[in-house]
Specification:
This protein is of the alpha/beta class. It is built from eight helices and twelve strands. The strands form three sheets. It has a five-stranded parallel β-sheet with strand order 2-1-3-4-5, with helices on both faces. The model has no long low-confidence stretch (mean pLDDT 88).
Length: 229
């Protein structure tokens, strides 16, 4: 369900957690800000106005429990507690303090994404998860993309790459930028991975003449989404 209009605030005193979550959520299309404690979080909630707040419990200055109780006074954002406190008593306390969901560390990022999507669906019941971009339709709930109404059979990486190209349709994206957003900063695979997956997409799109995904010599690639039907 990623959508650039959805804002997420990550609140955790561990800088590595803040960085990991921020990079991952940005790659999924969310707008993200971070805070290292509850007091800073309250100020950012007022100015940033997030729809989702992911917060740790054990933080200095103001812990997650106090923050969770303070949030409803200034925001109707959904809260997901992300913490190492894993007893049933901890979970019950967190939910009773006002958290909408509770996830224990260590966690799988895909599970966090799914829980975020649940909160967004609950808050925006009319949300279809579909976005039309030219000739393409992205269904973010089903993780599918259709071209002229026909669903493309894409691998997870192909879906992620094509989604990124579509969100930036008609803009030239460098190979380096694509590599970072699709494969991540720490990717250590083949140097030509972008070219390989661009060729996969062109085959799936029957784009033999490169009219949909254009190579801009010396600069990168640009996807021409076409006109909406």
């Amino acid at each position: 369900m990623p959508n650039p209009k959805f804002k997420i605030l990550v609140v955790d005193d561990d800088p590595s957690i803040r960085q990991m979550l921020s990079l991952g959520l940005i790659q999924e299309g969310y707008e993200v800000q971070t805070a290292e404690n509850g007091e800073i979080a309250l100020e950012k909630i007022r100015t940033f106005e997030p729809q989702i707040i992911i917060l740790d419990i054990m933080m200095p200055v103001m812990d997650g429990y106090d923050l969770c109780q303070a949030i409803p006074q200034i925001s109707n954002a959904s809260t997901i507690m992300l913490t190492a406190k894993d007893t049933s008593q901890d979970i019950v306390k967190g939910l009773r303090m006002g958290a909408n969901d509770y996830l224990v560390k260590p966690f799988h990022f895909e599970e966090l994404l799914a829980r975020i999507e649940v909160q967004l669906r609950n808050r925006f019941p009319g949300l279809s998860g579909q976005k039309v971009i030219g000739r393409f339709t992205i269904n973010e709930l089903q993780k599918t993309i259709a071209l002229d109404g026909t669903v493309l059979h894409l691998s997870p990486t192909e879906y992620k790459l094509l989604t990124y190209l579509l969100w930036n349709a008609n803009q030239t994206l460098s190979k380096e930028k694509i590599l970072i957003h699709v494969w991540g900063y720490d990717f250590e695979g083949e140097d030509n991975i972008v070219e390989v997956y661009i060729s996969y997409l062109r085959e799936k799109l029957a784009d033999n003449s490169h009219k949909i995904i254009k190579t801009i010599r010396g600069l990168g690639y640009r996807l021409e989404a076409g006109n909406e039907n």
